[in-house]
């Protein structure tokens, strides 16, 4: 094991240094590398390095003609401390990759001076403030701010000049909400997002009106966002071609968005909302459907296996569904997960299981199923979790 060799600091004309994915490289980032004003690319990701990077960035900020650095990738290490304001002097930087470290504190306000920045990834750190200067990154196309400790508010100023923004990731694994959007309903952003992933952030109570002109969206995740509203008609009329709609863990009501059009291998997640009425179906190219913990009632549609034949995951648990398990589920030859627990299903368990050889999880617990357990369940060689508790089986 060892650190980055000091010999590199003497190579004044070095343009690219890539020591990524060397698990034996540890220690701090040598401040002497900050004297390499001609360096365009520095990649040190996936190592065991740590410490602060303040001295390194300060060194680059003192380059007489400005640093030539265009890519800085320090991801998947143990770098820590706060980012210094001197990072704003990297006016030629296009790609800033700092994911999965231990950085804390705010993103420096000076980031707004980094006029060439196209992609930035602060994901998986402990940072807590997004400055309004972030909205001055006019070249930015992708921003990954996921899994941090952001606090306060996001306003129009944070997006003011982000006309090229296409991907926005504010996903957070923890359900705790400490960041809120404070945006006027009349605001229309200058960007056209393709990918939006916001989880555990307060967007509500209304469905975000600033998405009204976002007619190029492909992935929409607004999960655990404190939205207590209906999905508005204007969103359904954007004629989107989606690969994912995830609005789980809100208080959405009204009609489920069954008119949405999906591309291949699409995901639909409406879990933990207030939807009611008959169980909805979508187009044949949807592969995962999560509708658990709503108020859907009535029978499972008898043609569910014909209307959505490519399903791999189906979770319709914790509703008020009645009637028998449809035989068409036996047509779902690629199904791996079937969760229909905590409903009011009756009748015998069908014997179609040999037609669904890849099942990994089956949960039919807490219903009123009767009869015997079909012997064809013994053909499921991939089965890992099988739950039938609290039924009337013999």
From TrEMBL:
It is found in: Cell membrane. Signal peptide: none annotated. Residues 68-213 form the Disease resistance R13L4/SHOC-2-like LRR domain. The keyword Signal applies. Its main location: membrane. It comes from the Eukaryota. One of its GO terms (cellular component) is plasma membrane. The keyword Translocase does not apply. InterPro entries: Leu-rich_rpt, LRR_dom_sf, LRR_R13L4/SHOC2-like, StomDev_PlantInt_Reg. Coiled coil: none annotated. Keywords: Cell membrane, Leucine-rich repeat, Membrane, Repeat, Signal. Pfam families: LRR_1 (PF00560), LRR_14 (PF23598). SUPFAM superfamilies: L domain-like (SSF52058). Gene3D superfamilies: Ribonuclease Inhibitor. This is Disease resistance R13L4/SHOC-2-like LRR domain-containing protein.
């Amino acid at each position: 094991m060892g650190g980055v060799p000091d010999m590199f600091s003497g190579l004044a004309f070095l343009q690219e240094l890539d020591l990524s994915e060397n698990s034996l490289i540890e220690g701090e980032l040598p401040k002497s590398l900050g004297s390499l004003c001609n360096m365009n690319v520095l990649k040190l990701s996936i190592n065991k390095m740590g410490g602060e990077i303040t001295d390194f960035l300060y060194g680059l900020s003192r380059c007489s003609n400005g640093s030539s650095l265009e890519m800085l990738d320090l991801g998947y290490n143990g770098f820590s401390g706060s980012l210094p304001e001197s990072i704003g002097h990297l006016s030629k930087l296009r790609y800033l990759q700092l994911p999965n470290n231990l950085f804390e504190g705010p993103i420096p306000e000076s980031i707004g001076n980094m006029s060439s920045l196209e992609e930035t990834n602060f994901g998986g750190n402990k940072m807590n403030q997004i400055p309004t200067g972030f909205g001055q990154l006019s070249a930015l196309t992708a921003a990954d701010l996921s899994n941090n400790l952001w606090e306060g508010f996001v306003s129009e100023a944070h997006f003011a000049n982000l006309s090229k923004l296409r991907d926005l990731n504010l996903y957070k694994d923890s359900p705790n909400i400490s960041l809120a959007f404070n945006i006027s309903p009349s605001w229309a952003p200058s960007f056209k997002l393709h990918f939006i992933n916001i989880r555990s952030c307060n967007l509500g109570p209304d469905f975000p009106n600033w998405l009204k002109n976002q007619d190029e969206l492909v992935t929409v995740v607004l999960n655990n966002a404190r939205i207590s509203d209906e999905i508005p008609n204007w969103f359904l009329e954007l004629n989107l071609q989606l690969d994912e709609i995830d609005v789980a863990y809100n208080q959405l009501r009204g009609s489920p968005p069954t008119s949405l059009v999906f591309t291949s291998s699409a995901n639909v997640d409406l879990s933990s909302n207030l939807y009611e009425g008959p169980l909805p179906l979508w187009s044949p190219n949807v592969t995962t459907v999560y509708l658990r913990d709503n108020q859907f009632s009535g029978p499972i549609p008898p043609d569910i296996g014909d209307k959505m034949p490519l399903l791999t995951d189906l979770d319709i648990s914790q509703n008020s569904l009645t009637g028998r398990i449809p035989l068409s589920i036996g047509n779902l030859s690629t199904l791996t997960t079937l969760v229909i627990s905590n409903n009011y299903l009756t009748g015998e368990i069908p014997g179609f299981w040999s037609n669904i050889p890849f099942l990994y999880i089956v949960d039919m617990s807490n219903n009123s199923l009767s009869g015997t357990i079909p012997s064809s369940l013994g053909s499921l060689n991939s089965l890992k979790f099988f739950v039938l508790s609290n039924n009337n089986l013999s």
